[in-house]
Amino acid sequence: MDAHSVIVRPIVSEHSYELQEMRKYTFEVAKGASKLQIADAIEELFSVKVVRVNTLSVKPKKKRVRQVAGYTRSWKKAIVTLAEGDSIEIFGNQA
């Protein structure tokens, strides 16, 4: 897998912003990606040093639209911890 197919998108939420203060960044990743592949992809794409990668599978939730019941999709989340002094600018310099 190349780096762009491993990292799907960054996760933008209030919780992920709080984690950024501790040099932890959250990404949606490919379901079949391993922790080593995720670390290599982040290092390649953002030119940073990855210290730790934590992954979890987000399970589907039941949803209903009128009479039609179904599920949301399942996906994989990675929380990446960077080395001291490294950071990732997800939105560039917007202030």
Automatic annotation (TrEMBL):
Matching entries from InterPro entries are given as:
Nucleotide-bd_a/b_plait_sf, Ribosomal_uL23-like, Ribosomal_uL23/eL15/eS24_sf, Ribosomal_uL23_CS
Record keyword Ribonucleoprotein present = yes
Which GO MF term does the entry hold, naming one?
rRNA binding
Any stretches that span the bilayer, and where are they? none
GO cellular component labels: ribonucleoprotein complex; ribosome
The family database entries (SUPFAM superfamilies) matched by this protein are listed as:
Ribosomal proteins S24e, L23 and L15e (SSF54189)
- What family does the entry list? Belongs to the universal ribosomal protein uL23 family.
Question: Could you tell me what this protein does?
Answer: One of the early assembly proteins it binds 23S rRNA. One of the proteins that surrounds the polypeptide exit tunnel on the outside of the ribosome. Forms the main docking site for trigger factor binding to the ribosome.
For this entry, the protein name equals Large ribosomal subunit protein uL23
Identify the species of origin: Coriobacterium glomerans (strain ATCC 49209 / DSM 20642 / JCM 10262 / PW2)
Supply the source organism's classification: Bacteria, Bacillati, Actinomycetota, Coriobacteriia, Coriobacteriales
Name of the gene: rplW
